[in-house]
């Protein structure tokens, strides 16, 4: 009977499909993962996501303890509460992982991202781009007669808003670092 249902196009549930059919509300979560700084660790973490069909919206990695040889992976992902719980549990089981923190649920956190924006334009568009950059407190880090490169640090939504305003003014290239985050307080 089950094989017949599959042949007729009925949906089947894979072991990798961890979505709760009763709760399809996806949430964005920022996870901080402290790992051994050794070859292959990042590939194993990313493999956990790709192997199960989860997406990573943002990913940053840097060594945070030179003497202890540890790195911090900060990643932003989306999923239902059940999927996020499964991701955290599976991350915690990877051998070189020391700690997994869900900054979204553990309390207030500070999130920042760096963006570089190249805006091409002349005349009034150029003046308008500078005016908007001043409002957003973006720095001009390169200037030619044809373009500016602005540097902006802020929340991901602030960088999104800046990019949206710069598009009609000639935004031609964009580079973003991904989210860096720490919990607030003690």
TrEMBL record:
The keyword Transferase applies. Pfam families: ACT_AHAS_ss (PF22629), ALS_ss_C (PF10369). The keyword Coiled coil does not apply. Residues 1-22 are annotated as: Disordered. It catalyses: 2 pyruvate + H(+) = (2S)-2-acetolactate + CO2. Pathway: Amino-acid biosynthesis; L-isoleucine biosynthesis; L-isoleucine from 2-oxobutanoate: step 1/4; Amino-acid biosynthesis; L-valine biosynthesis; L-valine from pyruvate: step 1/4. One of its GO terms (cellular component) is cytosol. One of its GO terms (molecular function) is acetolactate synthase regulator activity. Catalyzes the conversion of 2 pyruvate molecules into acetolactate in the first common step of the biosynthetic pathway of the branched-amino acids such as leucine, isoleucine, and valine. Dimer of large and small chains. NCBIfam families: acolac_sm, PRK11895.1. This is Acetolactate synthase small subunit. It comes from Paracoccus haematequi. The gene is ilvH.
């Amino acid at each position: 009977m089950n094989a017949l249902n599959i042949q007729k196009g009925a949906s089947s549930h894979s072991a990798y499909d961890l979505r709760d059919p009763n709760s399809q509300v996806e949430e964005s979560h920022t996870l901080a993962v402290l790992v051994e700084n050794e070859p292959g660790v990042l590939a194993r973490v990313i493999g956990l996501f790709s192997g199960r069909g989860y997406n990573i919206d943002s990913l940053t990695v840097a060594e945070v303890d030179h003497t202890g040889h540890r790195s911090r992976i900060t990643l932003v992902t989306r999923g239902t509460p059940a999927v996020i719980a499964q991701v955290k549990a599976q991350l915690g089981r990877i051998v070189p992982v020391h700690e997994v923190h869900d900054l979204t649920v553990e309390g207030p956190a500070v999130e920042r991202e760096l963006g570089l924006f190249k805006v091409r334009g002349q005349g009034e568009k150029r003046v308008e781009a500078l005016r908007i950059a001043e409002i957003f407190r973006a720095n001009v880090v390169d200037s030619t007669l044809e373009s500016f490169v602005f540097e902006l640090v802020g929340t991901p939504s602030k960088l999104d808003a800046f990019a949206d305003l710069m598009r009609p003014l000639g935004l031609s290239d964009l580079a973003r670092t991904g989210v860096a985050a720490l919990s607030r307080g003690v």
